[in-house]
């Protein structure tokens, strides 16, 4: 433990954002995304639907004059749709100059997960773990660490097939 | 030089003012060139501009600019004073424009924080030579004896000199600067510069402070000697000189007679004798200038340059405020309360926010005129170099385009205009044999077309040769279709492809093989498109279609179910609620409506975009008849919400990259913070066949 604290201090010195993850809940699982991608967290907003888009892109929202698309991560992971409530949040992330909002069930906390505690996801045939970059261990829990870039770019072919 | 960068606001001011002056100068020259004659006003104007630039450049220690401006000032001083009759106006314009370019280049460097170091002496001596030549040509013999430098020997005679000679005091001042303050000559110059407006006559030693760096040593050793005739008391004068920066020692003596002035008098007396009648108009001129100068400075002050990023931010903030306002005034907690005064105040607030929003949107829009006017210069230079007579016609220069877009289209436009003159127009003698008007015409036209801004570059030259284009395309393997299958338009558009240039010989202005694809790239970067139309022997038209990105359009907001859409008002012909018996359905299930004897197809927006709505019966909703590209369509929506000016925003790039949605041009924010999708009518009418 002492070692990990030292490690943490060292990393904080190096880069305060490194190794820190925003964790959120999606159903019973807990996911984490690198904090350096996160711009802000907002409550659910009125969403304007945009036609002809894959189902998981719910539409666009107005974030203080900036128009950003929002993606329902549940649908993206082919989980059943759940009605939005006041716990539902939109995490606005910014990857390679592209802003996008992720609709998730609820946000939990910001955690520091040292690199030593992150393992590569096991190879389990198909499944949707291609969006998972690693699995972080914190105490007794495991957090699925998302690969944001893949979340946005991968699966283009798939998404086109979905609507046709 | 440290002083130079410590003065940021002053620097900004300098850059801004000088840029404006230079632009004004350029317009002046180009206008007069058209008239073929430099009127007295113009000469005065140029003299004034150069004088200002000289002064401020010297103040900011840009000696090369200041020196150059000085020579031009001399030249125009001569023109103003002697009104010579034989002037080679075109050489004169060339020279001044060269100066303009030089200063522009230096200003660019200053803006980028580079060192200003280009040598202006070659240009200066060119101008001096020209001045000499002018003098000789106009045979003002006495003046030739007097070298040019002598005119710079700094007798400055202020405008109100005539009456109050009696109150004049004569002073001799010897000024020493702090050791190691450097550039004593410039500092000395600054003093004389300040004194010039107040003093009647100023002489100083050493005389060539600006031109000659050796003078620094003289000033260091012997001090800067200043002889002034001025309408000020000893104390006033002393106070004034004491303000000098880095002043080490000041010796001010009031002189009883003008003995010591005599040594400077010689050249002046001569001039006064030479040209006695000129002196009177000169005073008038200067007064006139003075008045003009004041009006110009005041107009300068009413314009400030603002960072566009700040404007973007401002626009977002105002949008945010509008939403906040709606949240307050339509707060659910207020329901059921009778609060008359609150509503009054809320209405007032609403009025102000709406006005504010309109204003912020309007701020970003800039008329195209500046960009268009820049082309005058290109046309002028090119017609001279290529020996083609060209007339540039500008139409619709008042069309407003977003500032960002203007920056992107300026270069392509320049390229197109060059192309039109170089490749498009025939040589003058060919035109005569072809019985075309001798003067070639290039037209720049801008207009709003639906949701786009169209910019047309037209020439009445030889047009494009289809066969040549095809041959060239074949050589370079650019053909995708077989030749007979291609329409004229497709053939013309071949020249937009990279690696295509029909001009065999590379000329100075165009035809380096990069060609039109650069234009296409630039225009596509802002989401626009380029198309070409041509008729052999009659001319070529190149149309730039600039998208509505951030352009403000007048839109009609409509609703379908919960969704909002915006239709550009310019495309709307009418809207109406149809009668049952006007509706027609053909066997394929296509719905149409008969309006005044004509049949139009109907597009159900809710079906196209799969929006849930309760209004599916035509008689309950509304039909909006739109027209673009000479095709007409009736859009069926639930209801009209109202007309509004909207700022067009592009859809997020993520959505655009995921899928290209047909019939959507972008989106916009409505006053209540909701997002409305802007319909691309062109796309919709074509979608329908």
From TrEMBL, chain A:
SMART domains: CheW. Residues 18-157 form the CheW-like domain. InterPro entries: CheW (IPR039315), CheW-like_dom_sf (IPR036061), CheW-lke_dom (IPR002545). This is Purine-binding chemotaxis protein CheW. It comes from Mobilitalea sibirica. SUPFAM superfamilies: CheW-like. It holds the Pfam family CheW. GO terms for cellular component: cytosol. The lineage of its organism: Bacteria, Bacillati, Bacillota, Clostridia, Lachnospirales. One of its GO terms (biological process) is chemotaxis. It comes from the Bacteria.
TrEMBL record, chain B:
It is an enzyme of class 2 (transferase). Its main location: cytoplasm. Transmembrane segments: none annotated. GO terms for biological process: chemotaxis. Residues 3-110 form the HPt domain. It is found in: Cytoplasm. It catalyses: ATP + protein L-histidine = ADP + protein N-phospho-L-histidine. One of its GO terms (molecular function) is ATP binding. Keywords: ATP-binding, Chemotaxis, Cytoplasm, Kinase, Nucleotide-binding, Phosphoprotein, Transferase, Two-component regulatory system. InterPro entries: Bact_Chemotaxis_CheA (IPR051315), CheA-like_dim (IPR004105), CheA-like_homodim_sf (IPR037006), CheA_P2-bd (IPR010808), CheW-like_dom_sf (IPR036061), CheW-lke_dom (IPR002545), CheY-binding_CheA (IPR035891), HATPase_C_sf (IPR036890). One of its GO terms (cellular component) is cytoplasm. It comes from the Bacteria. The modification Phosphohistidine is found at residue 51. It holds the Pfam family Hpt. Its EC number is 2.7.13.3. Residues 346-550 form the Histidine kinase domain. Residues 552-689 form the CheW-like domain. SMART domains: CheW (SM00260), H-kinase_dim (SM01231), HATPase_c (SM00387), HPT (SM00073). Involved in the transmission of sensory signals from the chemoreceptors to the flagellar motors. CheA is autophosphorylated; it can transfer its phosphate group to either CheB or CheY. This is Chemotaxis protein CheA. The lineage of its organism: Bacteria, Bacillati, Bacillota, Clostridia, Lachnospirales.
């Amino acid at each position: 433990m002492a070692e990990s604290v030292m490690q943490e201090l060292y990393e904080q010195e190096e880069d305060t954002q490194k190794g820190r993850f925003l964790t959120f809940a999606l159903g019973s699982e807990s996911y984490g995304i690198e904090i350096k991608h996160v711009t802000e967290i907002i409550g659910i907003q009125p969403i304007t639907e945009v036609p002809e888009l894959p189902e998981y892109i719910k539409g666009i929202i107005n974030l203080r004059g900036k128009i950003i698309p929002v993606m329902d991560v549940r649908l993206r992971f082919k989980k059943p749709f759940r009605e939005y409530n006041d716990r539902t949040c939109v995490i606005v992330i910014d990857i390679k100059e592209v802003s996008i909002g992720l609709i998730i069930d609820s946000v939990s906390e910001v955690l520091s997960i040292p690199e030593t505690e992150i393992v590569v996801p096991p190879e389990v045939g198909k499944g949707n773990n291609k969006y998972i970059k690693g699995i972080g261990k914190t105490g007794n829990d495991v957090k699925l660490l998302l690969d944001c870039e893949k979340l946005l770019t991968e699966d283009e072919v798939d998404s086109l097939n979905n609507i046709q | 030089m440290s002083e130079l960068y410590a003065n940021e606001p002053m620097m900004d001011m300098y850059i801004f003012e000088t840029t404006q002056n230079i632009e004004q100068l350029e317009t002046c020259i180009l206008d007069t060139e058209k008239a073929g004659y430099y009127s007295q006003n113009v000469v005065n104007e140029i003299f004034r501009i150069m004088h200002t630039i000289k002064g401020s450049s010297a103040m900011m220690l840009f000696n090369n600019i200041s020196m150059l401006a000085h020579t031009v000032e001399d030249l125009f001083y001569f023109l103003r004073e002697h009104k010579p009759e034989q002037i080679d106006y075109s050489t004169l314009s060339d020279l001044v424009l060269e100066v303009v370019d030089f200063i522009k280049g230096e200003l660019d460097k200053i803006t980028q924080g580079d060192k200003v170091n280009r040598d202006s002496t070659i240009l200066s001596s060119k101008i001096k030579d020209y001045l000499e030549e002018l003098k000789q040509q106009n045979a003002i013999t006495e003046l030739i004896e007097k070298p040019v430098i002598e005119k710079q020997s700094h007798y400055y005679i202020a405008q109100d000199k005539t009456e109050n000679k009696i109150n004049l005091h004569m002073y001799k001042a010897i000024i020493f600067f702090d050791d190691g303050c450097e550039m004593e000559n410039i500092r000395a110059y600054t003093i004389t510069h300040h004194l010039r407006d107040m003093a009647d006559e100023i002489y100083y030693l050493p005389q060539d402070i600006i031109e000659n760096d050796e003078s620094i040593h003289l000033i260091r050793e012997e001090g800067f000697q200043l002889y002034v005739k001025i309408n000020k008391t000893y104390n006033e004068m002393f106070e004034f000189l004491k303000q000098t920066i880095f002043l080490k020692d000041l010796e001010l003596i009031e002189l009883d007679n003008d003995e010591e002035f005599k040594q400077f008098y010689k050249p002046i007396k001569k001039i006064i004798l030479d040209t006695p009648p000129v002196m009177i108009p000169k005073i008038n001129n200067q007064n006139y200038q003075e008045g003009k100068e004041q009006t110009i400075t005041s107009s300068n002050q009413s314009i400030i340059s603002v960072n566009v990023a700040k404007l973007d931010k401002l626009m977002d903030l105002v949008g945010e405020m509008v939403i906040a306002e709606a949240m307050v005034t339509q707060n659910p907690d207020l329901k059921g309360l009778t609060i008359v005064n609150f509503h009054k105040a809320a209405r007032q607030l609403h009025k102000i926010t709406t006005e504010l929003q309109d204003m912020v949107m309007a701020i970003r829009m800039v008329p195209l005129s500046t960009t268009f006017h820049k082309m005058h210069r290109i046309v002028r230079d090119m017609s001279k170099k290529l020996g083609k007579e060209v007339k540039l016609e500008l139409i619709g220069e008042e069309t407003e385009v977003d500032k960002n877009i203007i920056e992107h289209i300026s270069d392509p436009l320049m390229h197109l205009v060059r192309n039109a003159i170089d490749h498009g127009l025939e040589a003058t003698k060919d035109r005569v044999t072809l019985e075309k008007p001798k003067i070639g015409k290039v037209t720049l036209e801008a207009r709003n077309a639906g949701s786009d801004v169209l910019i047309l570059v037209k020439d009445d030259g030889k047009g494009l040769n289809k066969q040549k284009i095809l041959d060239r395309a074949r050589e370079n393997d650019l053909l995708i279709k077989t030749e007979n299958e291609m329409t004229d338009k497709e053939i013309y558009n071949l020249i937009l492809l990279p690696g295509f240039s029909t001009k065999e010989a590379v000329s100075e202005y165009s035809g380096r093989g990069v060609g039109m694809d650069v234009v296409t790239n630039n225009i596509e970067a802002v989401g626009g498109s380029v198309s070409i139309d041509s008729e052999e022997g009659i001319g070529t038209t190149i149309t730039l279609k600039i998208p509505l990105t951030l352009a403000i359009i007048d839109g009609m907001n409509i609703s379908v179910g919960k969704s909002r859409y915006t239709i550009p008002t310019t495309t709307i012909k009418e809207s109406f609620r149809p009668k049952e018996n006007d509706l027609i359905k053909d066997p394929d299930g296509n719905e149409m409506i008969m309006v005044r004897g004509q049949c139009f197809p109907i597009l159900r927006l809710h079906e196209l975009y799969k929006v849930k709505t309760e209004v599916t019966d035509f008689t309950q909703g509304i039909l909006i008849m739109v027209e673009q590209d000479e095709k007409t369509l009736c859009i069926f929506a639930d209801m009209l919400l109202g007309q509004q000016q909207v700022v067009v925003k592009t859809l997020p790039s993520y959505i655009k990259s995921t899928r290209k949605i047909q019939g959507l041009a972008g989106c916009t924010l409505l006053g209540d913070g909701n997002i409305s999708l802007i319909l691309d009518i062109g796309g919709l009418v074509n979608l329908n066949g």
